[in-house]
Structure prediction request, 333 residues.
Amino acid sequence: MPSRPLPRRALPLLLAPYVARANTYPDRPISLVVPFLAGGSTDIAARILADRMAGKLGPHARIVVENRAGAGGSVGTEWVRHRPADGYTLLLASASALGTNPAALPDQTPYDPVLDFTQIALIGGGPIVLVVPAASPFRSAADLLAAIRANPGKYSWATSGAGGIGHLTGEYLKIAAGLPGMPLRAEHVPYRGGSAVMEALAKGEVDYSLEVLASTAPHLRDGLARGLAVSSLQRHPLFPDMPTLAESGLPGFEITTWNLLVAPKGLSPALAEVLSLAARSALAEAQTSARLTGAGVDPGRPMTPGETRAFLAAELAKFRGIVAQAGLRLGRQ
Prediction:
């Protein structure tokens, strides 16, 4: 069972003995690696977390966000795997890096998402948005899917990378909207991060995308793109007028993304607990929660390191099931 939320006043007291055990940690800046370009959902969440979490670790603690993009998050994730397990290199992993990439691209993912890392905390998550350029003629998900169905191979769609959460969601969408054994046909165009996807949409390089809400929210607010539907079962409070895919003719359609804070394998249990409690303390703050929610990231429920590990294992199993159902066989890109 997940941990109950801790009272805010109790968290600093609970942190004290762990900090004492960790001696002078941290005595230099902590690197929080984001395996995507700046501006995407994981990067947004990382910068909010770094700002609010550092103070929980001590008055002089600093957490510096470092972007290492490539291969749908696998490049930065693999880099972190080889860092010392001393608490000074952390990874804000995405569902793509630790879930869909290992599920869809096992031969190209050089790490085990569960065994090669120390899981620390669930930070947040949210739905995927079916989004089109502002100038698109499509006003609803049903209209877009009908056009793709009537014109096989004519339309193109962008994601943050082959094998990523957007890619897997898009492939699942094509299956759900097609006939049994005959998924819809559209050209997949992978980019290196959510910000690059949104730029491609703005330029009209692609016809639609499946992208996480945090990456799309600013563009939707500014009228630079149009959201047709979300991939969660409920509408999102940021855009209550945007229907779900389930409401748009695909009953039961649900895929959501998430971000986990992890460290290289071998991090001491004491330091893992220090970092987990600091993250949970930051997430318990109304200010942090409001900033994440405003950016399109739903704050995660409190989880211990052990619960975070179990959550990851269950999500990985789910994504592998979707890959099998979709019959995906991804070669080298």
